[in-house]
Amino acid sequence: MSFNVKDIRKDFPTLAVKIHGQPLVYFDNAATTLKPESVLRALEQYYTTGTSNVHRGVHYLSERATANFEKSRDKVRDFIHAAKSTEIIFTRGTTEGINLVAHGYGRKFLKKGDEILISGMEHHSNIVPWQILCDEVGGNLKVIPLNDDGDIIFEEFEKLLSKKTKFVSIVYISNSLGTINPIKKVIDAAHQFNIPVLIDGAQAISHQKIDVQESGCDFFAFSAHKLFGPTGVGVLYGKAELLNQMNPYQSGGDMISSVTFEKTTYNILPYKFEAGTPNVAGVIALSAALEYIEKVGYDNIVAYEHDLLEYGNKVLSEIPNLRIIGTAREKAAIFSFVLPNIHPHDLGTLVDEDGVAIRTGHHCTQPVMKHFNIPATSRASLAFYNTKEEIDILAKSIIKAMKLFP
Amino acid sequence: MENSRTRELYQQVILDHNKNPRNHGKMKGASHVAEGYNPLCGDHLFIYLKIDKNNVIEDITFENDGCAISTASASMMTSALKGKTLDQSQNLFDQFHRLVLKELNPESEANDLGKLKIFSGIWQFPSRVKCATLCWHAMRGALNKDNSVTSE
Fold first, then answer.
1. From the list B3, B5, B68, which residue is nearest A346 (CB)?
2. pLDDT of A215-262, one tens digit each?
3. pTM above 0.90, yes or no
4. B9 to chain A: which residues are within 8 Å by CB?
5. Helix-, strand-, coil-residue percentages of chain A, each rounded to 5
6. Which CATH number fits domain A5-30+297-404: 3.40.930.10, 3.40.50.1380, 3.60.21.10, 3.90.1150.10?
């Protein structure tokens, strides 16, 4: 399919919304993405004419919901190129996926003195679960340092790898810097020591094709809502041999095969990790989001967003004294920046008056802010439905705001 | 700004207090100190007070790292509180709190807010109310010997 951003924008009803009388410029895609009509229709269809629980009833609606739910699992398997559908666990989102691994793998296999490696650009959700785990088992959390561009220092990572290292968890694309990490290299280096690797794919999956088998990662977590799907649903991919060895995370219905008061036998994969009624509508609508992305095509997305990245870099760097935070060699179209006289929160409020939605603050990456010695940044994070004209609107709005804070 | 909403928020008085904050700096020999922190946005400040034996605020200063609204609010709060008794300060705290939540209309209800009335339009920016109130919470925390407060 040829890529026509005008046509694509028609698929996203939120893009037609006016903010304070101005057309919306939605540059907060790293927080959550907008939803195309087809996703909204899938949600509506389930709740209007298809409501039923899954994996339980023998009645028509339940069987249909179950079939659609499991079809969605197959769709995710194909989309990220997993070997088996049983390796696809539906979660509430990336955060829950990471917690599931910290709990199910970490508590079972990590011991006193073991080390877990993360990077200096992790989201809090890929720091705190490992900290809690380390506190519980007496492990140590080690951090791969960053350079001033916001790249990990790979040689330092290699130095940190040792026999003590028992787990590596690293983000693919940084939400606050836009850095694309060399995950294949990270995974290969870790596997030399037989260390399993989790990839936080929350940001990455909306920007580029994911192939979990090609990368060789052991776990890959992402959220539907950052992929043009609904909130409250996500995916954890894990290699079956690891998932099978792990402890269950939450327990209850669906994750068991038999229960007596004396003993419970756990269900097989993936149900072992899916206790309770799942987000049925969300899972089905995720499948619609994946179909939408396939229709647009990752090749088109990558090429178009690269154009936006280059244009944004050019336009923003022409603004006097604007400093872009995060200048990695490999970057997604995420612009974090600071200005000498305007605090990000004031800027966020001022550009909002012009209809521009950006995020301001520490973006749940306080250690990144500390690394660059700043309290907060303003962040414009783009998606394939954004345009160069919108970047111009942002730039104009920033220049206008700067006049207020000379 | 063409828009009246932001023009009201970023009035000249606010911009001036942001650029030239009054009572800014660490105080030696403070009798009361508290730290205020907004974990969501990263705004961070310290309030220092010197209370005399008659329960009057003899001196009050602040140090901060934050947006224009939080800096201007702290600057104007410290200016307003100098020389006030603790009871008057508590009273002003309550009035300011009600003002930013649009519960107090300074035009129709008697009040002691004076210049602080400039914050009366901030309720239109729900995410920014906390910027204006952080210093007040820290001030009250200092007086209550609660050394660390957040505006969450």
1. B68
2. 999 999 999 999 999 999 999 999 999 999 999 999 988 888 899 999
3. yes
4. 349
5. 45, 20, 35
6. 3.90.1150.10
